[in-house]
UniProtKB/TrEMBL annotation:
Protein name: Disease resistance protein RPP5 isoform X1
Keyword Membrane listed: no
Lineage top rank: taxon: Eukaryota
MF terms in GO: ADP binding
Organism: Raphanus sativus
Signal peptide positions on this chain: none
């Protein structure tokens, strides 16, 4: 009889899942789908692809696989119980599972595939016994044993697959259950593996281990301390046993720096082939040997902390260097390095969520036991200090001996860390900064101190005169991410490191600090007129200023190098006042001053370097009483400046791309607009009577909603639709204007479809009733090319000034200029915020004009 190992010591697991089934019933249906789903989740699954119909016992290989599996899935099908080998395999599984259950591990999942649990056919068991040459006196005992085993299996929680069941959904449930248990077990023993399940699932889909024919080279990228090596180490332990040749080369960067590239290549070859290192005769001999000796071998290699192109070229330059089925993992902070070397498949590692960070912190500090209830809030606060960075969580946990201090002592310590991160935490990240070129270091410091969370296009314009190269370098070095909305996201710990670097560079002297952001320090520097030419930027949250301060003529007199001035507030009042004789810095590229307190910019203001001018909620009546040099200006935002009567001549601002005058209720006309303008937002300018667009304009987005004097301006609509530039393969234009009737241009003309169809203009009449108004940003609409549908997602706001019940009518125009299929929009979808249960908005009419 077959038997599982009788050793009391549980063997080290090799397989995540052992799959038991009757091949002729299930191999090509449920089992194949189940196996594929398990592999996609990154679960290493044993599936015997050979029919065991020879010999009178289970092969030792199978017994070993059962003993070294964590979980078991047994698929009971119609012919399962008339197979001697299946029944013996099940008995061996039940023995191992019984031991594991004593260790409080739920390990066995039965699946009854188109049979009922407990429907044991003793005749089938007898037939199974008869197929083997066993002494007749063993028949009753063996059949009774099988019957008992099947009965025990039927009593376990199981999954029933019938003809009425959605097999795909049921398989997903089974796999999800196994996956949850698998990673819960790992995390219990290894706290730093919190979140590993999602990483393994993501990497499994990229690795495609079940694909034996192709070679895959995969990059793992992410910021310093995010856990790249930990993830790869776990991956290596999971999969390396499948490969005859495998190795994990830790810290390639250090090996290469200390011993050279030739030794690195020699070391790699000796590790993966388990041979004694040999002295290389010439430069490049190592990479040649790697290519020659591994090209027919199935290898699994992990290269950790790679930082140079030559390292990749020397060890794994091309897929042809390795045999079919090989997998090579390259770990680096530098995604640009992977791009340069042609590594197309990259897995980006992100920081942990708040929930996972807290779980990891608790697991490390309390070894899996529940922490005292009084520490719960303190634990949450400490875990947040790490901002999801695993290495910081580990470092903070090592600093905190929760078993020797009182709650009051910990409150004091946590408060101190909240004020200033521990130096060790900042040091984790400094190596990434140290490796940057000088110009990229400067861009990094600007982002950390001034532009974290800002739009990448705007920041690139300010730093690189339109080139995104500097920010792209920071992305490639894993120091920042770009959100789907196009905003720069820098982890708070990285931001803190950047700011600490700025402070250290100045010898902790505010007057010599490259960028100032602390309100009290800025207040002192401006009040005392003590700034120096070392200062290049100020970012002042005015609501945190200790007192009101007036900017005098001499406030910036020594700050010759200031390029970025950000005085921001959420309030509509400013704690900064401006004396009549005040003078602003001469080299400003950015002037951002919320609630600007004066009627105009200073008369001596030099604007020739301005790239962005933002004066929201200001007291402006005129932008300037003198001519402004706006040749470099790309963005002008004077929104909610309710007293602003007119703008200067903007025709000379030939780089201006975005103009925001939203809520400027005294503004009566917009003219002399430059051809370069891409976006115009004049929502709520309810005195605006005239908008003159330039001929051959570049405007792609124009919002004139709630500008009632412009109602039914046919000339404006026609000019917008017919006079714009079209120098792109596909162009999407949007306009929203007050309108009660469809313009004649949108005549629902649909000529006979032809191969020369070049686009369409769609008009959508939207009505909004009650005390609400609609706003359309550039993310409020989209055109789906594949489905040929238009989706509107306006923002809906309460309007306290509007009491009339008559509906406000908006004409939304979307124009697509592109070579398109012989078709027209099939649907118009209006999507509103979920917080409005009964939104007072409806689509009243739609028209489409096709043209070629």
């Amino acid at each position: 009889m077959a038997s599982s190992s009788s050793s009391s010591a549980t063997p080290a697991p090799k397989f995540d899942v052992f799959l038991s089934f009757r091949g002729q019933d299930t191999r090509k249906n449920i089992v194949s789908h189940l196996y594929a789903a398990l592999c996609r989740k990154g679960l290493y699954t044993y599936k015997d692809d050979e029919e065991m119909e020879k010999g009178d016992s289970i092969p030792d290989e199978l017994i070993k696989a059962i003993n070294t599996s964590r979980f078991f899935i047994v698929v009971i099908s119609e012919k399962y119980d008339n197979s001697y080998w299946c029944l013996e395999e099940l008995r061996a599984i039940m023995e191992v599972a019984a031991v594991k259950r004593k260790e409080d591990i739920s390990v066995l999942i039965p699946i009854f595939y188109r049979v009922k649990p407990g429907s044991i056919n003793r005749e089938n068991l007898t037939a199974a016994f008869s197929a083997m040459k066993h002494p007749p006196m063993e028949e009753t005992a063996m059949i009774d044993e099988w019957e008992k085993t099947l009965s025990q299996l039927a009593n376990l929680a199981s999954y029933l697959f019938s003809n009425l069941v959605d097999e795909a959904a049921m398989i997903e449930k089974v796999v999800e259950k196994i996956s949850e248990r698998r990673f819960a077990e790992e995390v219990r023993d290894h706290p730093n593996l919190v979140g590993m399940r999602s990483h393994m699932e993501g990497l499994a889909s990229l690795l495609e281990m079940e694909s034996e024919d192709e070679v895959r080279i995969i990059g793992i990228s992410g910021m310093e301390g995010v856990g790249k090596t930990t993830i790869a180490d776990y991956l290596y332990r999971q999969f390396s046993s499948r490969f005859s040749e495998h190795c994990f080369i830790y810290d390639v960067k250090s090996i290469c720096r200390s011993t050279g590239q030739s030794y690195l290549e020699q070391h790699f070859l000796s590790e993966i082939l388990r041979i004694k290192p040999k002295r290389l005769a010439r430069k490049g001999a190592g990479s040649h040997s790697i290519k020659e000796r591994l090209r027919n071998r199935k290898v699994f290699a992990v290269l950790d902390n790679v930082d140079k192109v030559e390292q990749i070229h020397g060890l794994a330059k091309d897929k042809s260097w390795f045999g079919p089925g090989s997998r090579v993992i390259i770990i680096t902070r530098d995604k640009g390095l992977l791009d340069t070397c042609g590594v197309e498949i990259v897995y980006p590692v992100k920081c942990l969520s708040s929930k996972d960070a807290l779980q990891m912190f608790k697991q490390i500090v309390f070894k899996g036991t529940d922490p005292p209830a009084c520490f719960e809030q303190l634990l949450t606060r400490v875990s947040r200090l790490a901002y999801g960075l695993p290495s910081a969580i580990i470092r903070y946990s090592s600093l905190c001996d929760w078993h020797t201090k009182t709650e009051a002592e910990w409150e004091k310590l946590v408060s101190r860390y909240e004020e200033s991160p521990h130096k060790n935490i900042v040091d984790i990240l400094k190596s990434s900064y140290a490796e940057l070129h000088q110009v990229d270091k400067l861009a990094f410091l600007y982002v950390a101190c001034l532009f974290n969370g800002a739009d990448i296009k705007r920041v690139s314009d300010l730093l690189d005169d339109g080139s995104e190269s500097r920010i792209q370098v920071l992305v490639e070095k894993s120091l920042v991410d770009i959100s789907p909305q196009g905003c720069i996201n820098m982890n708070t710990l990285v931001e803190n490191m950047g700011r600490e670097t700025v402070v250290e560079e100045s010898d902790r002297t505010p007057t010599k600090q490259r960028i100032l952001w602390e309100p009290r320090r800025i207040y002192s520097v401006l009040r005392d007129e003590s700034g120096t030419r070392k200062i290049e930027g100020l970012a002042l949250p005015m609501c945190k200023m200790p007192y009101v301060l007036e900017i005098e003529r001499r406030s910036f007199r020594k700050m010759y190098s200031v390029k970025f001035l950000k005085f921001h507030t959420r309030n509509k009042t400013s704690k900064l006042q401006l004396s009549p004789t005040a003078r602003l810095p001469d080299m400003l590229k950015l002037l951002h001053w919320d609630a600007y307190p004066s009627r105009a910019l200073p008369s001596e203001f030099l604007s020739g370097f301005l790239v962005e001018l933002t004066l929201r909620c200001s007291r402006l009546q005129f932008l300037s009483k003198t001519n402004l040099d706006l040749r470099k200006l790309k963005r002008l935002d004077v929104s909610e400046s309710k007293e602003l009567k007119e703008l200067p001549d903007l025709s000379g601002a030939n780089q201006l791309e975005e103009l925001v005058v939203e809520g400027c209720k005294s503004l009566t006309f917009l003219k002399d607009l430059p051809q370069s303008l891409n976006s115009l937002n004049a929502h709520g300018c309810n005195s605006l009577e005239t908008v003159s667009l330039p001929s051959n304009h570049s405007i792609k987005h124009i919002d004139l909603s709630d500008c009632s004097p412009l109602n039914n301006d046919q000339e404006l609509i026609t000019h917008f639709l017919t006079q714009g530039q079209h120098d792109q393969e596909t162009l999407l234009r949007f306009a929203c204007i007050p309108q009660t009737t469809m313009p004649s241009y949108l005549d629902n003309c649909c000529p006979r479809l032809s191969p020369n169809l070049m686009g369409f203009s769609a008009g959508i009449m939207v009505a909004c009733s009650g005390p609400y108004h609609l706003k359309f940003s550039e993310s409020s609409y989209s055109w789906n090319c594949e489905e040929f549908s238009i989706n509107l997602k306006p923002q809906l706001y309460p309007d306290l000034d509007r009491v009339e019940e008559e509906a406000m009518n908006y004409l939304v125009i979307i124009q697509v200029l592109s070579s398109i299929n012989n078709n027209q929009p099939r649907s118009f979808l209006l999507e509103l915020p979920s917080r409005f249960n009964s939104p007072p908005v409806e689509i009243r009419e739609t028209r489409v004009h096709m043209f070629h």
